[in-house]
Amino acid sequence: MSVSVLIVSHGELAEQLIKIATSTFGGKAPLSCRSLSVSQNCDPDLIASSNTGMLSKLDQGDGVLILTDAYGSTPSNIANRLATTSLSKVISGVNLPMLLRIFNYPQQSLEALSVTAFDGGKDGIIVCS
């Protein structure tokens, strides 16, 4: 078993991040991944309630790491509501380095993978001179 990943984002960001990261790994993601795209004029309560079953389907027994784009935003609020329904961790600020780092450590536990995700995202931000 392994941890699964759900990315909740504005627009198509989640789908594109998964697509790019997966292509980097030869077209197959090392972890089960799903995306949940949120439009700016959606009803957050409706989105959260209609997707609660998604986490139980996605969870392979070791939990779900939920990544979202901007803390305090509608996708972040939806992610945090979904997290109350299963074994999961939520991390905001998703970026490509974060997802690539996660894909490199698919055997880690939910707790360890959440630290790996945080470190990967943070270390992927560099001021270029």
Please, could you describe this protein's structure?
The structure is a single chain. The chain is α/β, with parallel strands linked by helices and 129 residues long. It has one domain (4-117): Rossmann fold (3-Layer(aba) Sandwich). Helix content is 46%, strand content 18%. It has 6 helices and 4 strands. It has helices at 13-24, 44-50, 52-58, 74-83, 96-104, 110-123; strands at 4-10, 33-38, 64-68, 88-92. The chain has a 4-stranded parallel beta sheet, sandwiched between helices. Helix 1 links the parallel strand 1 and strand 2. Helix 5 (96-104) crosses helix 6 (110-123). It starts with a strand and ends in a 6-residue tail after the last helix.
Summarize, please.
The protein is of the alpha/beta class. It has helices at 13-24, 44-50, 52-58, 74-83, 96-104, 110-123, and strands spanning 4-10, 33-38, 64-68, 88-92. The protein has six helices and four strands, in the order βαβααβαβαα.
How many E strands? 4
Radius of gyration: 14 Å
Main sheet makeup: 4 strands, parallel
- CATH domain class name: Alpha Beta
Helix residue percentage = 40-55%
CATH architecture: 3-Layer(aba) Sandwich
Fraction of residues in β-strands:
15-25%
